[in-house]
Amino acid sequence: MEYYSKQIGNLIGALSRLPGIGNKTAQRLAFHILAMPPKDVRELANAMTDARENVKCCRECMTLTDDELCPICSNAKRNHKQIMVVENSRDLAAYEKTGKYTGVYHVLHGAISPLNGVGPGDIRLKELMSRLSRLDEDDDEVKTEVIVATGSDLEGETTAMYISKLVKPTGIKVTRIASGVPVGGDIEYIDEVTLLRALEGRTEL
Amino acid sequence: MEYYSKQIGNLIGALSRLPGIGNKTAQRLAFHILAMPPKDVRELANAMTDARENVKCCRECMTLTDDELCPICSNAKRNHKQIMVVENSRDLAAYEKTGKYTGVYHVLHGAISPLNGVGPGDIRLKELMSRLSRLDEDDDEVKTEVIVATGSDLEGETTAMYISKLVKPTGIKVTRIASGVPVGGDIEYIDEVTLLRALEGRTEL
Fold it and tell me: DSSP strand E in B3-76: where?
């Protein structure tokens, strides 16, 4: 890239290392940034460094946040006895966007994947168990429920199975989100495994 | 986005204001940045602010660069009498990637577009003319050539026409890059205007 001067080349190089950003997109972004008001560029740069430097895991649910407790865990209106276990903070955001879930979350930061060398000890299962044992202590009439919302791929299913084996002996209710035909999905284009799951998980009308 | 803490929300917001980056992509990028080593994040942020703060137009060809002269204009091996006029620095890079062009460039930073309120005075035509008059002064046997490589859309064509009218009276040779069927293009899928251009611009074999 000798046809770009050093700093412009650096910027394009740094941008193209981001996921899903190829060389062409990096160029377009770089020239957009070069045309932005310097104030906006500083804001963007600061947003990056600030977020990166202050990011930590929520003390309760392990999601990425910049406080001790994330906005959801610190919300008294949420049902803190209903815990949805998700693989990452983006999955949490996806469920939050539905606007209907009133419980809290637990973010595993991954899924068990022996092929990739990710074992049960590498994701935040220990934190989930200690959180559940703390919930168990304060006995009241509301029952704790763990909703396993890991993905429906091999890793997600393995993780779900593992969590169920781990949690069930404690007497806490464990549920799994339904797997089936997505809304608006055309039956003829859906894979066999999903169709079988939809059949197995049928509900009475 | 109350389900993201303030700084993560800021980062996603700042990223999603970049062109071609929607909310989903911004989220993915943000979580990638949060997982990057802090040093790399600082490097990326510095690459942005440094490039933005030091960017200027090359004294000769007006391309964006961080020195007085861009790497191409300061290269003595290039033919400084052959000037390719392009709309922006990305178009320059596209021609540089061919590796075959040995002349220099002139970057207009736009194209004449009356509909968008861009007139001849808004692009770097004045700089092109003063550059040509300077070249004209040192009379030697090598003739100056202006290759107009603006786009083949309405704005690009208008600009090419305007440049030709401006430069021709000075006696300098003006050429226009060929318009026609792209290499690998399937004739049946190419629009009529391009096909007509290809016919008009036919060359003897």
Answer: 56-57, 64-65
Q: What is d(CA A25, CA B191) in angstroms, rounded to the nearest whole number?
A: 27
Q: What's the CATH code of the domain at B17?
A: 1.10.8.420
B192 and B153 co-located in one domain: yes
CB contact under 8 A, A51 and B31: no
Position B86 in a domain: yes
Note the ipTM here. Answer: 0.81
Number of H helices and number of E strands within chain A? 7, 6
- The whole-model pTM stands at 0.78
B89-106 per-position pLDDT tens digit: 989 988 988 888 999 999
User: Same domain, yes or no, for B102 and B27?
Assistant: no
Q: Please check whether residues A20 and A78 belong to one and the same domain.
A: no
In a domain, A150, yes or no: yes
B7:A89 CB<8 A:
no
Query: Which CATH number does the domain housing residue B136 bear?
Result: 3.40.1360.10
Optimal mutation site among A4, A36, A102, interface B, most CBs of chain B within 10 A: A4
Tell me whether residues A3 and B45 touch, CB distance under 8 A: no
B32 touching A (Cβ < 8 Å): yes
Whether residues A27 and B93 touch (CB distance < 8 A) is answered with yes
Domain count, chain B: 2
- B69 interface with A at CB cutoff 8 Å: no
Q: How far apart are CA A38 and CA A44, in angstroms?
A: 10
CB atoms B52 and A72 under 8 Å? no
Mutate to test the interface with B, among A48, A72, A89, A92 (most CBs of B within 10 A): A48
Low-confidence ranges of chain A (pLDDT < 50): none
Is the residue at A59 inside a domain?
Answer: no
Residue B108: partners with Cβ closer than 8 Å, 6 or more residues away:
B62, B85, B86, B87, B88, B123, B124, B125, B128, B150, B159
